[in-house]
Amino acid sequence: MSRKWQILLLFCLAAVFLMGSINEPGAAEKKGKPLKIGTCNPLSGPTALWGVSQRRCAEFWAEDINAKGGLLVNGVRYPIELPRGDDQGLPEVARTVAERLIHKDKVKFIIGPNIDTTYTAVKEVCNPEKVIHFGATFDPKNIGPAQPYSVLIMWMAHQTGPILYKYLMEKHGVKKIAWIQKDDPGGRLAVEICQKSAKALGLEIVDVTFFAQGTHDMYPQATRVLKGNPDVIDLPSASPEEVGLAAKALRELGFKGMITEETEGDVEVTCSVAGPKYCEGIIFNAGSFNPVNASAAMKKYHDRYVEKFKTWNPDAPTKLYTSFLLGAAIQKAGTITDTDAVMRAFQAIQLKTPYLPGNEVIRAIGLKEFGINNQIGVPMCLAQVQKGKPVVVYTHMAPQEKGITYDPAYEFKW
């Protein structure tokens, strides 16, 4: 063989070797600059239960992503950083935190906040800047086409209401209902919708009374609603501490009926306020974790959380989907800066996740309810306190919504 052909052969072999190397997993990946995702949650104050769980879930997600080198987007690995802010459950603080995250830390995405008033404050900062924020609110006015970058991460109280009420009617024969509700704009609007749902199902509405955030005495509210002799007293937007206060007052005043809440509860917190005997039988939104049929990945997540924090927060299974869906939407859109593209990707997403058993997916919903597909359809479990422990009695999964052209199930690229 001539030297000319020897050189040509060596060149071809080198090219084949190089192409093979490029096609190996990870071989073509590049390392990008850190991707900053802000967190704005109540880490102190009466609603810290919800904010702490969301921050911790974001930290777990970032740890897992960074262990792989970062979030993979179009062949580039972006390490995740999570600049944080404690909004303390106060709207003026939440607004300041959001402004700092956007203008100082230059974030395009914020995880949080977690109650109506702070969500309202943050949406007013984020939407003009085209910054996507994923938070929790019970005020239906906070979600809609007028705020296209605001995403709801869970079920609102008025959405869980019909599911809860139907279950109570079928399984417990309830006929009369009253409400003790938090007195804020979202709370008043949510309970109005809850009343319409109850009436449509055929429940007799006895009364509704309100309490201010920070209330430590629920006896006036309990005394009022008991006059109508309801079968069930519902607390749609109450925190675990507030449910404990109400349960204690209601039981000490002789109420034998059912007590329910539509926020994600925490039995330990509620029982520490009311005492175990007054919590027995309470039915609450238990988030997205059913230990009976939990997947191996979800059980592992539970054990990891308990090992690190020495306690289990029942709010965590719902909040873990937030970071997962945000990361998947960024990855699917193929950009870390174009938030319009990320929102389009999110609104059509059906995400495969190891945290669900079988072939279940987490999908975007909300078009029918809010006029925009800006809600995460997390699993919703109803649980009852039995002998001081939560026992899941019903699980609801979000179906596909009419009018949405969903993409095929997407599998996150680690």
**Compute the gyration radius: what is it?**
24 Å
The overall strand count is: 21
Shape: globular
CATH level-4 homologous superfamily of the largest domain: Response regulator
The number of distinct helices, counting runs of at least 4 residues, comes to 14
Number of domains: 2
Instruction: Calculate the terminal CA-CA distance, rounded to whole Å.
Output: 48 Å
- Beta-sheet strand percentage? 15-25%
pLDDT average, as an integer? 91
What is the highest CATH level, the class of the largest domain?
Answer: Alpha Beta
Report the uncertain regions. Answer: 12-25
Helix content: 40-55%
Largest sheet: 7 strands, mixed
Keyword list:
414 residues, single chain, 14 helices, alpha/beta, globular, Rossmann fold, five-stranded parallel β-sheet, 21 strands
Description:
The protein contains 14 helices and 21 strands. The protein is α/β, with parallel strands linked by helices. The protein folds into 2 domains: 222 residues, Response regulator (Rossmann fold); 129 residues, Response regulator (Rossmann fold), CATH 3.40.50.2300. The strands form 5 sheets. It has a 7-stranded mixed β-sheet, with helices on both faces. Strands 7-3-8-9-10 form a 5-stranded parallel β-sheet, sandwiched between helices. A 4-stranded mixed β-sheet has the order 18-17-16-21, covered by helices on one side. The two termini are 48 Å apart. The relative contact order is 0.11.
